[in-house]
Design brief:
- Helices cover 79% and strands 0% of the residues.
- With 312 residues, the chain is mostly helical.
- The chain folds into 2 domains: 246 residues, no CATH class; 65 residues, no CATH class.
Length: 312
């Protein structure tokens, strides 16, 4: 029972440490009122229709080879208001804290497991947040393009149309449209601003809009009708993705159950017969078996999810 109590304390310490690290990773909220005011060219109250603050965005830092660093790009796509140094400091602090907690309550093996979890969790959280923001922007983009097209029909210029759409569109897409307008006001062509934004956010539909604007400026045509067509295409793609997600729901549920089943069985045995399973972390062979279980379980879960994922 002593070993069981030590593992319970370790799990609690791990949850507390990672729970304290997550707000730092996702602390992006209040500081964008100044940024949004700068984007819109007015006061923070005039920048957005509501006082809700949007996450502060850090542009990816460029390395010596001219490419954005991976950490900066991930932070920008996730909308987290941390610099790469701050992000790495949070990761290092979480690893140290969890390792010390595991070493204090359950020994070196628990410290190693906790350090591995604390090291892998922040990138996973960033990836999940970036994917959620990308899906949210895809859902907003069609309506934003319709707003731009309507403004063009009403006689607005392209820059003014994007500014109006940015003010009417909520987070996360709205401030980005205002940023495009601000960069255009500073002299950058609209299509270049949209292309840079699409590359930074990993949003291919914005690249399509930038290409449409560039083609319209070279050969002419009705940009409003083109944007309406792109909006219809985006809506159809979203509907198709939702149908595919519903069709693959069983596979994703199976992956979740098969991944959690060994963990659940292990916890059940730990609660009912701790002396029976304690050999897994008190002997070298047991530690090897635990490592093999973890690796095979992770590989199986990733394989099932990869097979059931269909890119649209």
């Amino acid at each position: 029972m002593r070993a069981y109590g030590a593992w319970v304390l370790f799990v609690l310490g791990l949850g507390i440490a990672l729970g304290a690290a997550r707000p730092l990773l996702l602390a992006s909220g209040r500081a964008l009122s100044r940024r949004v005011a700068e984007v819109a060219g007015g006061s923070p109250q005039a920048a957005l229709p509501t006082p809700a603050a949007a996450p502060r965005r850090r542009r990816p830092r460029r390395g010596a080879d001219g490419r954005a660093s991976g950490a900066a790009l991930a932070l920008a796509r996730a909308g987290v208001g941390l610099t790469p140094r701050e992000y790495l400091a949070v990761r290092a602090g979480a690893v140290v804290l969890v390792s010390l907690a595991g070493l204090a309550v359950a020994g070196p093996a628990a410290a190693a497991v906790g350090a591995a979890v604390a090291l892998a969790l922040p990138p996973w959280l960033l990836g999940r947040r970036a994917e959620a923001r990308l899906r949210a922007m895809e859902g907003q983009l069609a309506d934003a393009l319709v707003l731009v097209a309507s403004a063009l029909h009403a006689g607005y210029g392209l820059a003014q149309a994007f500014a109006a759409a940015g003010r009417e569109t909520a987070e996360p897409l709205g401030p980005y449209l205002l940023e495009v307008h601000r960069r255009h006001a500073l002299g950058q062509p609209m299509e270049d601003s949209l292309a840079d934004l699409a590359a930074r956010l990993g949003q291919p539909d914005l690249s399509l809009v930038a290409t449409a604007i560039a083609v319209e400026r070279q050969v002419g045509g009705s940009l409003a009708e083109i944007l309406d067509g792109i909006a219809a295409t985006v809506r159809e793609r979203i509907q198709l993705r939702q149908r595919l997600r519903a069709a693959t729901a069983q596979n994703r549920l199976s992956a979740t159950i098969l991944t959690l089943l060994p963990v659940g069985v292990g916890l059940l045995l730990l609660a009912t017969a701790p002396s029976f399973v304690s050999v897994l972390w008190t002997t070298r062979a047991g530690l090897g078996i635990l490592a093999a279980i973890a690796v095979l379980d992770a590989v199986g879960a990733l394989w099932i999810r990869r097979v059931s994922r269909i890119d649209v």
